[in-house]
Design a protein that fits this description.
This protein has about 160 residues and is an alpha/beta fold. About 35% of the residues lie in helices and about 35% in strands. It folds into two domains: about 1-70, Roll (Ubiquitin-like (UB roll)), CATH 3.10.20; about 80-160, Translation initiation factor 3 (IF-3), C-terminal domain (Translation Initiation Factor IF3).
Length: about 160
Amino acid sequence: MNERIYFPEMRVVTGEGEMLGIISKEDALKEAKGRGLDLVIIADKAIPPVAKIIDYGKYIYEQEKQKKKNKKKQKNVSLKEIQLKPNIDVHDLEVKMKNLRKFIDNKDKVKVVMRFFGRQRLHTEKGREILEKVVKMNEDICDVEERSPLSGNSMLLMLVPKK
């Protein structure tokens, strides 16, 4: 801004959107001082760089206000994880599904992980059946974002809330 600008020439625009054209740094500074405002570089990567004659304090204030507004609009989606084993009991599965529904109602993504230990790896079809059962039990409130086959000793199922 102002004297810290190191470009010899720049395209200058006023705060009202009036184009002053490509002028030297000295002329642009005189114009800004004449209006009682600051000369601020807006786009330094452009050829020639673009500078704007504005009130710098107000410019910073508007930038901060815009950041806060964007942050409010942003939805933080958290990822919850539910771990299952292929020999899970019916009641235990119901409890896990109750928690899964709570997470989905809270608009969180849910990662369902089926872990196989030791000889359980020989019976991966049982784990796959349980994961399909999970999908069927919750198809009214969530969609499957990702399914991964057996990798290492686990299978993965990523569920997201329905839109």
